Amino acid sequence: MSASATATIASAPRAYGRRYWVFALPAALIVLAVILFPWIFTLFMSVHEWKVTGDTPFVGFANYAKMLTDQRFIGAVWRTLIFTAASVIAPLILGVWAAVCFATKFKARGLARTLFVLPMMATPVAISLVWTMMFHPQLGVLNYILTSLGLPPSTWVYDGATVIPTLVMVETWQWTPLVMLIVLGGLASLPTDPYEAAILDGANTWQMFRHITLPLVMPFIMVAAVIRIIDALKTFDTIYVITLGGPGSASETINILLYQTAFAYYDLGYGSAMVVVFFVLILLVSMLLLRLRQREDLR
Questions:
Q1: Which of 35, 42, 120, 268 is the most exposed place for a label (fewest CB within 10 A)?
Q2: What's the pLDDT tens digit per position in 49-76?
Q3: What pLDDT score does 17 carry?
Q4: SS3 assignment, position 279
Q5: Alpha-carbon distance 261 to 33, whole Å?
Q6: How many CA atoms lie within 13 A of 210 on its CB side?
Q7: Angle subtended at Cα 96 by Cα 91 and Cα 97, rounded to the nearest 5 degrees
Q8: Residues 255 and 148 in one domain
């Protein structure tokens, strides 16, 4: 083969590499437009008094400053944090416990696993409609069960004191299987040598779980925690379908409030400012959790 032919073949990948962007450019532009344009336009609306009708004057950071004194927004932030914390802690505890149970061999284990993950397969709206019927004070099956056991009926989502715990119960019921699947995958990958050594040393079941199983599956628990925190912060459909943010504003989280502000009161500028703040909150929490996850990997 001649030297010129060899040089041509060698330069072909470089020439193709310089031209590949021509084929990727249309897709990249579409992706950037779909992702960037909504955020740029949201930022633009957040610094304007953007109503459905009338002018849209520039107000700068007035919408953001308004949130500092808006007691309804401050209350929504606290309710969001409480709801998120409870909706993460409960599924993590129950999910880890369920994963440990399903990691052991017993009869009909496959059927039990299948039944356990069924709540995760349904859509949140469908689940919320079913739970709404179950929470009915007079016709709901839950109060029927309570009275059959000799217990007083509960007000469930119809009382401000019980609405958040009740919604957390729904979230826990639906998303505990997700935590179980993640942790169960971690348990399946654990080595057997530490357990054999612990048995020889006379360790009991709790000691092996506390000092061997839990530290080894902690990275998987962190992954489940990150997923659940981000998902719980963004929860909208379950709360909206069951309570609409009520009674009063007892279950009004940031998502519900910004939706009401933008699409019920048509204050798109203030609603857009809430979206930006909410996005920054989720971003900061996600970065913190990923940082903790990296530290866990370095141990």
A1: 35
A2: 888 777 788 898 999 999 999 999 999 9
A3: 53
A4: helix
A5: 26
A6: 5
A7: 100
A8: yes
Cα 283-289-291 angle, rounded to 5 deg = 100
Type of residue numbered 279: F
CB 92 within 8 A of CB 225: yes
Return the amino acid letter for 40.
I
| Same-domain check for residues 132 and 272 | yes
Rounded CA gap, 136 and 127, in Å? Answer: 15
Residues paired with 58 in a beta bridge: 48
CA pseudo-torsion sign 256, 260, 263, 266:
negative
Q: What is the CA radius of gyration of the chain?
A: 26
- Entry pTM: 0.86
- Give 53-61 contacts, CB < 8 A, sequence gap 24+: 56/269, 59/269
Instruction: Residue 30: give the domain boundaries.
Output: 12-46
CA–CA gap between residue 236 and residue 250 (Å, rounded): 14
**Relative orientation angle of helices 71-103 and 254-263, to the nearest 10 degrees:** 130
Classified as helix, coil or strand, 27 is helix
Question: Own/partner pairs for 262-265, CB < 8 Å, 24+ apart?
Answer: none
The identity of residue 92, as a single letter, is L
Please report, to the nearest 10 degrees, the dihedral formed by the alpha carbons of residues 51, 56, 62, 68 taken in order: 10
State pLDDT tens for residues 165-208.
999 999 999 999 999 999 999 998 888 888 888 888 888 888 89
Q: How many domains does the chain have?
A: 2
Q: Are 129 and 23 contained in the same domain?
A: no
Angle ∠(164,168,174) on CA atoms, nearest 5: 150
Three-state SS at 50: coil
With respect to residue 51, please indicate whether it lies within any of the assigned structural domains.
Answer: no
Regions of the chain short of the pLDDT cut 50: 5, 7, 9-10, 12
Q: What is the DSSP letter of 20?
A: T
pLDDT at 7: 47
* Cα dihedral 80, 170, 184, 233 in deg (nearest 10): -20
Q: Are residues 139 and 171 in the same domain?
A: yes
